[in-house]
Design goal:
By secondary structure, the chain is an alpha/beta fold. The protein contains 13 helices and 19 strands.
Length: 411
């Protein structure tokens, strides 16, 4: 799929900035060969993918904001926190910090990133936004990385937690309020050791939970998609009991109330389920919490909760469930892992990072590549449950994971 980044002739100095950003992305192993940079007679910048086109304008030159899909404002009234649809406000002063503010194009929710410094070069920031959108990053991730780019050298892709902005969880004036605000009374969730997860099957029945625990699996997730299942609660009760019997870490997907009621070892929540859960109640119960993420913004958002592990996905195309994002691929997975490994964490013996679980389309043909990205665990679904010999597949996965990311076999 060819992508064109079209730059107005009057703004041709942006071309060099865009090409430098593309070169930096290419050095990070992103596939930039399909991205072309051209001059256009239009007054707006355009990112054109097949029949789809992002029309992007800015107050860096004269253009009617109503003609744009995204209008980037680098100059705005002092301390103005009001943002219109399709507008993106950069460097809004808010007390002693700086905010980037926008309206999510699908949900209509106001979102914001908090930073400690202003953007140094507006045209560099805009060029990076164009390139990131051309590389198919969603808007919130493009804004996150473009802001982080402000804190590293010109030809460096941001990789450290200290480089990145912080997604705003609550802001009364902006109307931002998530259902799981991290309060001062909450501490970190139960921390897992780096190697405690191991191979992580995700299964849809308690029968599979029992079968795999008997094969020596030590971490497993029960994910029953249909809440109307008559045996739902009974299967959860049985899965929790099996975890105790086999001294295993059994995570219950989504049904956090039942997991709490029956004292499960852990709960796994997606982004949507997280909004409806009671984080304080989960934390006070001492339960382990795993959270799904699908990119930079979500990752930085939920890292503020200090979860037990962070799931990164989906890595490859998958048919097991409807996904809210495109496949992340190995390049992004490795970058997410670098970022997570640098997150300060003074809990226990860990000083940085959280355990990570790669998930989505992982099988024996690609597991070694995923493992090489530095993740703590591989989540597998059909690779085991559709196999004629699950034990043999488990053993093969374990051999792959017995080799560390530098190619050295663990003792």
């Amino acid at each position: 799929m060819m992508v064109e980044i079209r730059i107005p002739k009057e703004q041709s100095e942006l071309i060099a900035q865009v090409q430098l950003a593309l070169s930096t992305a290419n050095n990070q192993d992103f596939d930039t060969e399909y991205v072309a940079v051209v001059e256009s007679n239009s007054n707006d910048c355009q990112v054109v993918m097949n029949t789809f086109c992002h029309r992007i304008g800015s107050d860096l030159w004269q253009i009617d904001s109503n003609e744009c899909d995204f209008y980037i404002q680098y100059q705005h009234p002092c301390n103005s926190l009001s943002v219109a649809e399709h507008h993106i406000l950069i460097d809004v002063r808010d007390n002693n910090q700086t905010l980037d503010i926008w309206v999510h194009p699908l949900s209509g929710e106001v979102r914001a990133l908090r930073s400690n410094t202003n953007v140094r070069e507006s045209k560099q920031h805009l060029a990076w936004l164009l390139v990131l959108l051309a590389l198919d990053f969603p808007l919130e991730d493009a804004l996150t990385v473009a802001r982080a780019k402000n804190n590293v050298s010109r030809e460096t892709w941001p990789s450290k937690y200290c480089d990145f902005p912080t997604p705003v969880l609550h802001h009364e004036a902006l109307g931002i309020s998530v259902g799981w605000r991290q309060s001062e009374t909450l501490t970190a969730f139960h921390q897992l050791s780096e190697g405690s997860l191991g191979l992580y099957p995700v299964v849809d029945s308690v029968e599979w939970v029992e079968r795999l625990l008997k094969m020596g699996i030590k971490t497993i997730q029960l994910r029953i998609k249909e809440p109307a299942t008559e045996t739902l609660e009974q299967q959860i009760i049985q899965a929790i009991a099996l975890g105790r019997e086999f001294d295993a870490q059994v995570f219950i997907n989504d049904y956090w109330q039942l997991a709490l009621e029956h004292k499960a070892f852990g709960v796994h929540l997606g982004q949507e389920d997280l909004e409806e859960s009671n984080i304080e109640q989960l934390q006070q119960a001492g339960i382990s919490l795993g959270l799904s993420t699908h990119g930079y913004y979500e990752l930085l958002r939920i890292a503020q909760l200090k979860p037990s592990y962070i799931a990164l996905g989906h890595i490859f195309p998958t048919t097991t469930k409807q996904m809210p994002s495109n496949p992340q691929g190995l390049v992004r997975l490795a970058l997410y892992q670098q970022l997570i490994s640098s997150i300060p964490n003074s809990i226990g013996t860990k000083t940085q990072g959280y355990p990570t679980v790669a998930i989505g389309g992982i099988d024996l043909s690609n597991a070694a590549q995923v493992w090489h990205c530095g993740v703590s665990s591989l989540a597998v679904v059909r690779a085991i449950t559709l196999s004629e010999s699950p034990q043999q597949v488990i053993d093969q996965f374990r051999r792959i994971m017995a080799v560390n990311q530098r190619g050295v076999r663990h003792a």
